[in-house]
Amino acid sequence: MRAMRVLCTMIVLLLSLLPSLHGDSRINSHFKDGSSKTMEGLIRAGNLVSKMIFGPEKGRSVPKNIELFVASLPRTGTASMEVALEILGYNALHGAEIAPHSQFVEEFYQGDKTVDDLFDYIAGQGFDVGGMDLMGHFFRWAADKQHVKVVLPVRSAESWAKSWQMIEPGLDVLFGRPFSFSSRVRQLEPFVRDCMNVSGVSNSDKSLESLKSVYQKYVEEVKTTIPSDRLLVFDLRDGWEPLCKFLGKPIPDQPFPHIHESKTIRTSMQILNVIANTWPVLVALPPLLIVWCCTRGSRRRKSQGSKVD
Questions:
Q1: Whole-angstrom Cα distance, residue 300 to residue 77?
Q2: CA–CA separation, 166 vs 61, rounded Å?
Q3: How far is CA 233 from the centre of its chain?
């Protein structure tokens, strides 16, 4: 078991080096045009696994209040939304950023904490935006908070369904070996899978039509739950104007961010698959290498001894 953890840590360390390598012009020269997405995928995989296994991030501990809730499912433009909100001065909790807080998440899913406790904790960690990606289905919490505005990012049901079909198999990989040797990963698995169950995604038969129905039902449920005066149904293609008007923010002097992640995510999943399929070989290599070196050294010493004789 200890060897597995060491292996997993070594893999993460290697992947974690990729962001710094990406800043090297000698490395960048080999990753141009479409290939840059491949490097982004490598970096994303490294960052994801690092957050899932290593300790909490620093520098985000100034307590805030949750002012905004993004009632989004995964694959609804949440990466673009996160960047846009950061430009507007918000600090959003998005996706894998929940990973360093796995201990609290585990306590929540064991019934030791309430939903109010969960969002109080998130605010205490310096985030003022709730929901976003994995926690979007907690929008019912926001319905009772008169001071919290809610944004519902939307896209076509068909494009969302196709996007979900692309990433859904990655969950089983991420929560399988060798990543599951990390206690943090084991703590987070019930959280992530429950998020999918509550939204109805995991209960779908994964066909395109079924997933489209799940998405449409989710959107309608948010619309009927959140008071209309506190809800913005937001198509990211509409840009800054409706979002800034809703939030009472000036329109930034820069284009609205549109982050196209499909190829990046696909590469990330391929990297995680490679790790998942090759880790037994990687475990076996060090002892085999030691045996080979010892055997070779022994033969060399015997050879040298026979020459002396």
A1: 62
A2: 35
A3: 24
How far apart are the C-alpha atoms of 240 and 85, rounded to whole Å?
10
211-221 average pLDDT score: 90
Rounded to 5 degrees, φ, ψ at 49 are -65, -35
Task: Give the Cα separation of 155 and 251 in Å (integer).
Answer: 22
Rg (CA), the chain: 23
Is residue 301 within 8 Å of residue 293, measured between CB atoms?
no
CA triplet 263, 265, 267: central angle to 5 degrees? 70
φ/ψ (deg, to 5) at 92: -95, 140
| 130 close to 72: Cβ distance less than 8 angstroms | no
Compute the distance between CA of residue 112 and CA of residue 233 in angstroms, rounded to an integer.
34
Q: How many CA atoms within 13 Å lie on the side-chain side of 200?
A: 12
The type of residue at 33 is: D
**Which of 291, 261, 300, 290 lies closest to 45 in space, CA to CA?**
261
Q: Which of 254, 269, 236 is nearest to 82 (CA)?
A: 236
- In this predicted structure, the answer to whether residue 261 has a pLDDT above a threshold of 90 is no
User: Which residues make beta-bridge pairs with 235?
Assistant: 154
Are 177 and 7 a contacting pair, CB within 8 Å? no
CB 230 within 8 A of CB 150: yes
State the pLDDT at residue 39. 55
Q: Give SS3 for 68.
A: strand
Cβ-contact 148, 68 below 8 angstroms: yes
Per-residue tokens: 272: 């995680």
Which of 34-48, 233-247, 267-281 has the least mean pLDDT? 34-48
| Local structure of residue 180 (DSSP, 8 states) | G
Tell if the pTM clears 0.85, that is, is over it: no
Q: Per residue in 224-249, pLDDT tens?
A: 999 999 999 999 999 999 999 999 99
The pair phi, psi for residue 23, each rounded to 5°, is: -80, -5
Per-residue pLDDT at 89 exceeds 90: yes
